[in-house]
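Researcher: Please predict.
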Amino acid sequence: MAKLYFHYSTMNAGKSTILLQAAHNYRERGMEPYLLTARLDVRAGQGRIASRIGIGAAADSFTPEDDLFSRIAQRLADGPCACVFLDEAQFLTQAQVWQLARAVDDLGVPVMCYGLRVDFRGALFPGSAALLALADEMREVRTICHCGRKATMVVRLGPDGKALLEGAQVEIGGNERYVSLCRRHWREAAGDLAQSQR
């Protein structure tokens, strides 16, 4: 039975690596996956999913205006497709998450989404919020804070090396400006820990 999956984490946890490995496993068994990624993320080149460890694969790209149910239906009409893998799922719209759910329910194809859960301010991305509400299964891809605890948050550093508290939710590139932290150290970096102890 097909399901909608959401694999989420902070930055630099290896989500794209896991996606690419899973897609490779499908191909190795003679099953063709369909790969999608957000068009606005061009760090690895347009229409490409890549991992920091050096592996990558071509993918179709989507924009917020695309009807993903129609895209998947067309891909299925073009030939066998065992599974849909979607990277950068945080950039989906709520409507697109519903379209993915319809593809699972009505077309019978599993959809595996990989993305960030929260932004540098600790707020959910719209696509991630919708996936948390609609996914049949959710799996956390874990990474660790410098203290050894599980990292669940991420900070964006300014030119002075201090955590930014404001700014656009989406900023592509500049991975060196992001640091994954546990909640306690995120609060400390954001200035909240000192305030709450007064």
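Model: Residues 4-141 form a domain with the Rossmann fold fold (CATH 3.40.50.300).
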